[in-house]
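This section describes the prediction task in plain terms. A model, or a person checking by hand, is given the sequence of a single protein chain and must write out its three-dimensional structure as a string of tokens. No templates, partner chains or ligands are provided. The sample shown here is typical of the held-out split.
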Amino acid sequence: MENVITVKNMRESDEFTINTSVSSRELMRRAAQGVCDSVSWYGRIAIVCGSGNNGGDGYALGEILADKGFSPVVLRTSEKFSDDGLYYYRQCVKKGVGDLLCDEFTDFSEYDIIVDCILGTGFSGTLREDMIGLIEQINRSGAYVVSVDINSGLSGSNGLMLPVAVVSDLTVSVGYYKTGMFLNDAPRVIRSLKNVDIGIKLLKKQFYLITSDELSPFIGYSSEVLTADRFSLEYAVDEEEFRRSPIKVVAGESRDSGKVFVVDYDGSKLICDQSYVYFQSDRIDNIDKRM
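The expected answer:
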């Protein structure tokens, strides 16, 4: 079973690894290499980069693709950079990677592959209007879309769109799967999902990912198998709390009732059995590389 963790645990584990064993710059390069190895690249490639470390992953990917003989274009949403992001951005420029600014009016229809490196799992709050427009432009492009770590606009904690998110053909999670990749709106915007291990030391095990073959023991006597909407109708006293904190609500009901719950979010399942929380998703490694 693979680990599924909270955004907070991911951030703390990342910081611990950087402070004890692997530099942040090296982790960024490993993340980019993991994305590069997950896709068979072709055609016109646009890497859309935000101002933080998620954007830095995109710049590092641009350098790697340039070294492989591709001609990607970096489209920046900001003039700002993280420290490591600036390093890889300069490497891209040195190697002749195209460099443009983009906004909500940018037409992405000329690209065959778009890589979403705008916002990472740490984003919270509500998207600005210009960012909403930018994401909508990506979604209507017709390109094959790869989101790095998580789809921009999607909460890494609970899978809610804020209020829109990039719709990806493939999302490449970095380090460990995060809870928001399986909940609420996530299955509607993530068509396939995989994780790449970049050597981050996990500080705390929390939840687990099981395969479809491992799901059957949870479906049977005393278990409740139902959709998220049905659970909300039958058990969620506060529906808004259920959407914000589904793990807390379902696990609490499991402990109180003694039942096993299998809550289905359009093919991604949240499973609570009084003691543990599991996830299962039809989208794991269901990858069409499109090439």
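For orientation: The chain has nine helices and 14 strands.
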